[in-house]
Structure formats: C-alpha cells, structure tokens
Amino acid sequence: MLFIENFTPELIVESPGRINLIGEHTDYNLGYVLPTAIEKRITFKFRKNNSSTQCNLYSLGYNVGFKLDLNTISRSEVEWENYLLGVLNELLKRTDKLRGFDCIIESKLPIGSGLSSSAALECGLAFGLNKLFDLGISNMDIVQLSQTAEHTYVGTQCGIMDQFASVMSQKGHVLLLDCKTLKHTQIPISIAPYKMIMLNTKVSHNLASSEYNTRKKECEDGVRIFQKKYPEVMSLRDATLSMLEASATEMSKTIYNRCLFIISENERVLATAKALQENNLELFGKLLYEAHQGISELYEVSCPESDFMVDFSKQYDSVLGARQVGGGFGGCVLHIVHEDDVDHYITEVTKAYKSRFNIALDAFEVRPSSGTYISFEE
Ligand code: ADP
Ligand code: MG
Q1: In this structure, which ligand is nearest to the CA of 117?
Q2: I need a surface site. Which of 89, 198, 252, 309 has the fewest CB within 10 A?
C-alpha cells in the first residue's frame, strides 16, 4: 500500500499495553481490579489526507492494511480490522467532524499474551482521532466507546478494565478500579528490591472464540441463583461467601467454583491494594499465588504451561509470588523477583520450560507507566 512510503505524520500517539496485578475476570462481574499501563505499547502515526471520507490504515506488524469509507462502516471478515472499525463506528455516533485520514500502526506489544494489545489498538485509534480532528471526546468516553467497539464489532464481551488501564494509568502507580462505580484510586507503587518480571509462555489464546464468553455466562447463571434468596445481588460483586454457602445446594459444582473464585478474588484485590500501601511485599506475593490457584482450579482458565511456571517459581526464595495474567489459557505470567536474582532466575526457568515444553520463553521487566499519550504533534 503506497501511503506508508514517505509517510510524514502530523500526530504520533503511544498506546500502552497493561498488566493487571490482581483481579482476574472480576471486571465484567463489576468487581475490583488493580491494573497499570506498561512501557510496551502500540505507536499510531496519523495524518489527515484531504479526503472527506476515505481512510487508509496499515499495521506494520501484520504487514497488511485496509481502506475504508467513513460513510459505509461495517464489520469485516478480517478479525483485526474490527477493533478499528468498531471504534470508528462508535466515534461516528458521537461526532460529524471525522474526515479522511491515514494511519500507520506499529506495535511492540506481544499479541494475545494477556497484555491487552486489543485495548491498546482500540484506545490508541480513538485517542488519536479525537486529537487530530478535535472531537472533544473525554478520556472516559474513549475508554467506554472502545469497550463497546470490542463488544459490538469483535464480539468479545470484555469488561472495562483493559481500556481503562490503557488510557487512565499514571507512571509509578497502579489503579485500584471499582468496575461498578468506575471510582478509581491511583496507588503509588514501589516494590524495590523486587522487580515485576513477565514470562511469556508463548502459548496464545483467542478470547473471542474461547472460554471467555462461557465464563461470563456462568457468572450470570450464578447471579440468577443468588437472586432467588438475595434479590439485591445484581452481579457477583454484590455476593459474599456466606451467601454462597447458603445458595450452594442450588448450584452445580462448576457454577459454585466460578462464584467462589470471583468473590475471593475481589477480596484479594482489596487486600493487595492494602498490602502495597503498607509495603507488605510478602503478603503481596502470597496473594498472587492464591489468585493463580483460583485461576487454575476454580475458574479453570489456566493451562499446563502457566501452571508449570508458577509451580517452578515456588522453589525459589527470591520469588515472592507469581500468577498468570489476562483472560487465560497462556499468555504471560507475572513474577515478583528479587533484583539480585532476576538474571539467574530467568536462566533457570527458561531452561526448565524449554526442556518441558520445547518452547523458548520471553522474559521482560514491566514498570507501571503512563496511559495513552501524544509523543509528537506538528
Ligand atoms: P490481547 O488483548 O490479550 O493481546 P486479544 O485476543 O484480546 O489479546 O487481542 C489480540 C487481537 O488484537 C489480535 O488477534 C489482533 O486481531 C488485534 N491486534 C493486536 N495488535 C495488533 C496489531 N499491531 N496489528 C493488528 N492487529 C492487532
Ligand atoms: Mg484483549
């Protein structure tokens, strides 16, 4: 596609991935999460192209692009285009100021690895076009319209966390987000002498076609059972462990386990936020291990590769805790590792993982970073 040659951008936007320290699958149950943006990100280069409705988009990583007309936006057969088309569809509902543009997308974010490249893709486009055409859309609306885009065009019934973290994070902080009220607190985080190390299992998942929507439905089934005794329970966020015990006989073992995980995971998020504020890193690590056990045994969204990594880490005093992050079935595993042992630990786990699965894992450090930002403006 010719437009990417000699491309001179008017605007460059950086759209980060995110990690969630704890609070998995709690967002769509309107509970708590504790995410932050990371330095790995997608870069969007934009320019207006003097056309009223013709747009060109190109993903350098995929080496493929597509054209579209703003007058005839509809879902595509090509999966990745839908993240962007869905955002354009939402923007067009809010404004008539959008015009033709060209956009090049360059990503340093592993795809389908639990770092939410999908939210980075949606929010980066929305944020950039908002700026380029001065649309006057708030950051909160960018978060919400991006989530809606993923529901309607991609078909993943995701919660609000990924988009929220990608846009709203602040450097050096984690976001304690209440997904029911959208109230959020920026918590300063400093875990020295430990570091947050992500180990990518290199086993990928496809949320749209996998178990994600099934889990969401199972949670909704759980809510309906709670409501027989407790009509005030509108989502699993409102349920407690004692309500669960009182409703247990009405539930299948599977629904019981899903509910137990979500209710305890919400408690773990609040406990982790407190532990970080009190600099209780031992407790932070312990909560991560507990979360992973729930992810694996109760919510059943782990996989042998992630379980292996988490179990392996338990032999090392230099690792405080570990858990699989993201929707599940692989992706990255977060480890809290003492800075003096990072290199040694990565060498050991790489060797063990290779010999068990014949896969060369990727390791990288993550630091709490800023949400979507402009890095160049003409
Ligand atoms: P995650 O959000 O955890 O990375 P998802 O399955 O939710 O995983 O989203 C990944 C999808 O997002 C990819 O399959 C692709 O459709 C789209 N995507 C992400 N990054 C890019 C990119 N740089 N170029 C094109 N599409 C991308
Ligand atoms: Mg995603």
Answers
A1: 1
A2: 252
Give the relative orientation of helices 304-313 and 342-357 as an angle to the nearest 10 degrees.
140
What is the rounded CA–CA span in Å between residue 364 and residue 378? Answer: 33
Cβ(62) to ligand 1 under 6 A?
A: yes
Q: What is the pTM of this model?
A: 0.92
Does the complex come out with an ipTM higher than 0.90? yes
Q: What is the distance in A from the centroid of ligand 1 to the CA of 113? A: 9
Closest CA to 303 of 188, 194, 183, 202: 202
DSSP for residue 8: -
Q: Do 26 and 265 contact (CB within 8 A), yes or no?
A: yes
Q: Which residues are known catalytic residues?
A: 162
Distance, in Å, from the CA atom of 46 to the CA atom of 125, rounded to the nearest integer, reads 9
Domain assignments of the chain as residue spans, ordered by start: 2-189+370-377, 194-366
Q: pLDDT tens for residues 157-197?
A: 888 999 999 999 999 999 999 999 999 999 999 999 999 99
Cβ atoms < 10 Å from Cβ of 76: 16
Q: How far apart are CA 145 and CA 67, in angstroms?
A: 22
Topology of the domain covering 194-366? Alpha-Beta Plaits (3.30.70)
